[in-house]
Write a structure and sequence with these properties.
With 340 residues, the protein is an alpha/beta fold. The chain is built from twelve helices and 15 strands. The chain has helices spanning 11-22, 55-65, 83-93, 136-151, 173-183, 202-214, 232-243, 254-259, 277-283, 288-292, 300-313, 331-338, and strands at residues 2-6, 26-31, 42-45, 72-77, 97-105, 156-161, 163-165, 185-190, 196-197, 199-201, 219-223, 230-231, 247-252, 264-265, 268-269. The strands form five sheets. A seven-stranded parallel beta sheet has the order 3-2-1-4-5-6-11, with helices on both faces. A two-stranded parallel sheet has the order 7-10. The relative contact order is 0.14. The model is unreliable at 65-69 (pLDDT under 50).
Amino acid sequence: MRLLMLGGTEFVGRAVVESALARGWEVTVFHRGRHAPPAGVRSLLGDRTAPDGLAALVEASTAGSGSGGGGWDVVVDTWSAAPRAVRDTARLLADVAERYVYVSSCSVYAWPPAAGYDEAAPVVEGASADAGQTDYARDKRGGELAAVEAFGADRSLLVRCGLILGPYENIGRLPWWLNRVARGGPVLAPGPQDLPLQYVDVRDLADWMLDAAEQRLSGPYNLAGPPGAATMGALLDACVRATGGPAELRWTAPELILDAGIAPWTGLPVWVSEGSDLHDALHRADVSRAMRDGLRCRDVTETVRDTWEWLTGLGGVAPHRPDRPPVGLDPAVEARVLGL
């Protein structure tokens, strides 16, 4: 198989590239050159937001199509900004690539989605493949529309991801928890311990997408592990074991956390109070279609352990996307809530 990865140097894109290389695939990475791509790929440089930013891709596409059937079997695109960038790239590749996999988000569903929502749930209105950057939900939905417009419903795969964790994370959620637990001392642990979580390890996401491309799957898929396959307690206990630090998890009632003005999801990453619209949206999606079509998910212990190993290899400082706000709790706020 021949893969064209749009991006491929960070988080999801890097995991996809590594999975493809492990399968013996031929991999081309189109990126801006801000980070070095994995060894073993063909590297093309360009900025999709700049004039003539697709020039290297145009040249490669032309050369490929004229050399005995060249091109690519699958394109994977993780774009999160203006949908017209997906539109322009997808249109360019429609005749030289067989399938377009767009990494979208469960955020495309109209707010608030009901607990247990599946792929047939209503999506946000006002999105367009021709739009500039607006907000995350409409940008992702516009990217979906752009992929389907260029490749058709039968050659496009829309991967509506939930929470993604694992090595290479550049959002900061699991790295924050790991570093906080590694510091030790009393740790504000947001309860209840059995709060059900829903997430997918980035490597399981990457493996499933490439399997799906090989199987010629199409259409939208909610992509995360089963709801409740992990809990807040299991996640933080795994952090304690992985770091080996002298942390003391102090489980705290959700009401006390919210009364203190701590923002769910950002102030305490991953956590949102059960029964809220946000918890239904982030941790209760119906992923039965993806599970039926081959999604396999590793245990939270492995995800946490491998992320810690990667993070310590970087000296404890994870990369952070400049377009995403920082996450985590101010130590002074934590101490005040814990009565320290």
